Amino acid sequence: MFDPWPDEPEEPNPESRWDDPERDLPRDLTPDIDEEDVDPEILETFWRSVVLANIALFGLSLGPMLVYFRGQWLWGGAAIALGAVAGLRVYHHYRAFQDRHVDGEDDDATDTAERNA
């Protein structure tokens, strides 16, 4: 029979080169650390930063699109301003956390006041 592609190379078999990856990879990738084992201040700072960073990303990406594609300057400007304020709050929380732990301050009253600022 006529072969339309006589020079076609054979397909390589990846399992012959790297074995079976499904068998070699670990099955359970969950960490062995419980949430209760983490310092509550670190946990609170982390989740607060995650939420604020998501708000910043949302506002800073949606705002310019509203302005450019729909011409909605009021809503787009508000989204940009909200994103910028949320981004600045993330930076403020990060710097305050870093200053508390790098400088070695352990005063609970100062920590609580800075966290709630």
TrEMBL record:
<protein>
    <recommendedName>
        <fullName>DUF7322 domain-containing protein</fullName>
    </recommendedName>
</protein>
<dbReference type="Pfam" id="PF24008">
    <property type="entry name" value="DUF7322"/>
</dbReference>
<feature type="region of interest" description="Disordered">
    <location>
        <begin position="1"/>
        <end position="34"/>
    </location>
</feature>
<keyword id="KW-0812">Transmembrane</keyword>
<feature type="domain" description="DUF7322">
    <location>
        <begin position="36"/>
        <end position="96"/>
    </location>
</feature>
<keyword id="KW-0472">Membrane</keyword>
<keyword id="KW-1133">Transmembrane helix</keyword>
<feature type="compositionally biased region" description="Basic and acidic residues">
    <location>
        <begin position="14"/>
        <end position="30"/>
    </location>
</feature>
<feature type="transmembrane region" description="Helical">
    <location>
        <begin position="73"/>
        <end position="91"/>
    </location>
</feature>
<dbReference type="InterPro" id="IPR055746">
    <property type="entry name" value="DUF7322"/>
</dbReference>
<feature type="compositionally biased region" description="Acidic residues">
    <location>
        <begin position="1"/>
        <end position="13"/>
    </location>
</feature>
